Amino acid sequence: MEENPPKAKKPADRTDTMSFLEHLEELRWRIIKGLIGVLVGMIIAFFFADFFVEDVILGPTRADFFMYDLLRVDAVNFELQSRRLPGQFFTYWGTLFVMGFVIGSPFFIYQMWSFIEPALERKEKKKSYFTSFFITFFFLLGVAFGYMILVPFALQFFAQFQISDIIRNDFDINEYFSSVAMWVIACGIIFQIPVVSYSLSKIGLLTPDLLKKYRRHALILCLVVSAMLTPPDPISQILIALPLTVLYELSIWVSKYANRKRKKELDEAITGISKNDS
């Protein structure tokens, strides 16, 4: 055994000299910068307000919505009413905020990840851009799935569900907007499962073996989550449960990659020798 083993190289960390208050100050500025990105998105949405309100938010209420033909759904018009004085006002500005958040989400996500990233990654700065891209990709993929798959099925289920012929379905505009926004944003968040798997695996809290062990439990959880997010019809629940199951399987592969990468970085830190140099 060598008397003087090589010293481990300490990874560079731009936050190792920062105090707790300095971390809070950085977080505050990251949030402010992220919200500025959302504000810019809202300004863009304001200039295209007619399109976002008429074609995007209210599009699924019309029987000729393009997704109904693609999904082979026998659709009916979804009747809306404004039952409160500021109902349409809140819906208008709520639409601009949601659209602004979606448009500004890449910049907002980058700012948030740049604050979290030093605890997980201690090397090239470009990894922040790379990881932020995938977070944004899965978020927008979930938003698209929620809007084009979940929303049409859910709306038509409620529009055509009746307990008596003498009761007419007239829905409040605020309830409609809140439900659509919740379904869409929730899908965007749920689609972050692979990203969460990578982050937890990178710090050693998650392993692919653990994910495989609880695969059956995860399947049941996917069904429960889909039942909470969708109306009580089996088609909508299956439509949510299937991508959740696929994302869970993808998370196993992501965890395997992150654990292999973490082991490599630990070996380099202990030996002081980079495998890329050997």
Would you give an account of this structure?
The protein has 278 residues and is mainly alpha-helical. It has helices spanning 20-47, 49-57, 66-71, 87-116, 126-160, 173-190, 193-202, 208-213, 215-229, 234-271, and strands spanning 80-81, 171-172. Helix 2 packs across helix 4 (87-116), helix 4 (87-116) runs antiparallel to helix 5 and helix 5 packs antiparallel against helix 10. The longest helix has 38 residues, at 234-271. The model has no long low-confidence stretch (mean pLDDT 80).
Radius of gyration: 23 Å
- Report the major sheet: 2 strands, parallel
Order of helices and strands: HHHEHHEHHHHH
Mean pLDDT: 80
Structural class based on helices, strands and sheet pairing: mainly alpha
Poorly predicted regions are none
Order of strands in the sheet with the most strands?
A: 1-2
Distance between the termini: 22 Å
* Percentage of β-strand residues: under 5%
How many extended strands? 2
In terms of quaternary structure, the protein is single chain
Number of helix segments?
10
Overall 3D form: globular
Report the helical percentage: over 70%
